[in-house]
Amino acid sequence: MQKGGVFMIPIVALSIFVTAVILFKGYQFWRLQLLNTQFVDQFFGYLYQGNLKSAMPLVNASPNPIARVIESAVSCIFGSNLPLERSRDEIRRVAHFQIRQLETYMKGLEMSSNISPLLGLLGTVQGMVMAFATLEHASTRIDPSLLAGGIWTALITTVAGLMVAIPSLAAHYWFESRIDKTQAIMQDTVIRIINLHSQMQNPGSQTAYAQQAAPQAAGAQAGFTQQAFQGVF
């Protein structure tokens, strides 16, 4: 770190921060079982049979944030007489809260991936300036090893900055892709619950309901409701 100069200090600090964030996010995603979405299909399997009582324990037992959105959607759509606008606001509130929890420290990870290579470049430029300044004050006979040693020392900060930036950028993209996928599943799940609720309002749609197909008779009502909830997320 001494050979890299003063700019190695913030780079090392960023490397510690990035390592801590990656470990924290990995533990958070593991604890929330973010990669496990099988309960969603199982939930709808019961719901398509009209068995909401058996479907909800699957959701309640899951720590996945998608489960919290399902609980909110079922409560607002099936279990209350709230107006459409209030139901949408409540589902949106729960979904946004869950997404914000997943996005904790993501901005810091992105910032680290952008700043660390710039700090490395700045350290290299400073090292080059100092190397040429040393040559300027040297004797008329220039020793090439003096310049090479200065350049080698200066490039250490660039290498260190890239070693921090590359894993932090890769981790940021992976975490972000999982959050985006979770958000998409949340929205798709809410729309499916709304459509199923619309089907249940039509007594003649039970066969199609069990086959996971939208009945033509409830098309107008389902379309209106789905459109109303399209902007939940």
Describe the structure.
With 233 residues, the chain is mainly α. The chain is built from 9 helices and no strands. The chain has one domain (8-115, 161-229). The longest helix has 57 residues, at 144-200. The radius of gyration is 28 Å and the shape is rod-shaped. The two termini are 46 Å apart. The model is unreliable at 205-224 (pLDDT under 50).
Helical/strand content category? mainly alpha
Oligomer: single chain
Mean pLDDT reading: 83
Helices and strands, in N-to-C order?
HHHHHHHHH
Strand content: under 5%
Counting structural domains, the number is: 1
Q: Which ranges are low-confidence, i.e. pLDDT below 50, for 5 or more consecutive residues?
A: 205-224
Please compute the radius of gyration using only Cα atoms: 28 Å
Shape: rod-shaped
Distance between the termini: 46 Å
Number-wise, the strands total 0
Main sheet specs: none
Number of helices: 9
The percent range for helix content is over 70%
Please name the defining characteristics of this protein:
233 residues; mainly alpha; 77% helix; 0% strand; 9 helices; rod-shaped
Short description, anyone?
Helices cover 77% and strands 0% of the residues. With 233 residues, it is an all-alpha fold. It has one domain (8-115, 161-229).
